[in-house]
Fold:
Amino acid sequence: MSWLLLLAIFEWSIRVVMVVVILRRNLAPVTALAWLVLIFLVPILGLIIYLLIGVSYLGKRRAKYHREIVGSARSEDRMALMQAHTVRPEMGPEQQTMIVHAERISGNPIVSGNYIELIADSEELYRRMVYDIDASNHHVHLMYYIVRLDRIGHMVTDALKRAASRGVTCRMLVDAAGSRDMLRKGIAGQLRASGIQLHAMLPAAPWRRKLARIDLRNHRKVVVIDGRIAYAGSHNMVEEDYGHRRAGKWVDLSGRFTGPVANQFQMLFLDDWQFETEEHLDSEQLFPSLQPAGEIAAQVVPTGPSHEGESFRRVLLAALYTAQRKIIVTTPYLVPDEPTMLALSMAADRGVEVLLIVPRRSDHPLVAAAGRSYFDKLIDSGVKIFQYHGGMLHAKTITVDDAFALLGSANIDIRSFYLNFELNVLLYGPQITHELRFAQQQYLSHSCHVDLVQWRHRPAIKRYAENAAALLSPLL
Structure:
């Protein structure tokens, strides 16, 4: 029997077996079809890719462990810290609907008495952070997807070293894939030697079988200082050019939070710390009594793959369906699924002004090409799309009417919907919504509107390439 015949038998065996495997999983039809197309075209490569990234959830044991951690974190003692500031203010129906959805997804109530300072400039953000770290007296908690020991990274880690030297406990979580360069170069050992407790999140080695899918990532960016100050948003700990100029300067937006909502950021960090280290931390000094610092009501909404209900897509759809007048969304990666496409189109159908702002140039050409394939349908349904030309727009923001806003780490793509651990903050009321919309208006002022007629006259080769990329969108 020739080796060609053996190869053919092997490939057809893969196809037959994988049809059964994929159909048993009851996937969304478009996702199942994408996997079947890939496996039928290149069965061996398709099987390898499926084994690596084909399962969109944590392994059963790890998922159960994560759910147990989150459940125990919502203990009576911890939740009692927020009860004095838990509010059900007089708000419009869209706000009330969003509050209920977010609380069911996250377990976190809406809390009042917060102050949020929005910071776009990376230099300013990390100067403020270093100042706060230098003023810390008990603990500093950092969690980032990307940490690079460039000038920005050294600014922060030098501040951590100074804090550790004076007895402040410094804990640091970094994603194993996003921060792999820092972890591989021995710098992690130097940081640990200086007293910083550093751990990698979701190690990505293929032989680590605690994970059922090796590309599940922790995409969150959060800092908590003495349990009183928190930072969260889209900034990674890296210089604005991310070490290259392929897509231009990265444009981000984060917030500095004070007030009772800091407790919710702290609970999130401690959950992830225990998930990676199996160390349970719970002391009064981690949760100090927090007095009102402002007048903003806020709600931390973490999502991730440990439970299907904890989906960022649920948060996004709730926001889109509650809008009555205007929605502005900024996202660096736009690869919507069918429910998201429908929600955007339905919002435009009922007279809501829907504006999407995406970067003109992206650091992920395949993802960008897949996203552009959706422009035609979205624009035709009444959605206005703008391409930002001032750099790589990386800010992830949503404003809905004058009611509420979202700021965080999640993109409008399949990864953020189902695969990544993400963190978004819901901010309620016209004051903060207007502040965030002002930032969005700055993005609009450096963007070009995508005209449907001109878009349909782009070169045919681009249309074919984009439509081909879209076939892989359920897998991106």
About this structure: The two ends are 39 Å apart (CA to CA). The CA atoms of residues 140 and 225 lie 5 Å apart. Confidence is low (pLDDT under 50) at residues 206-213.
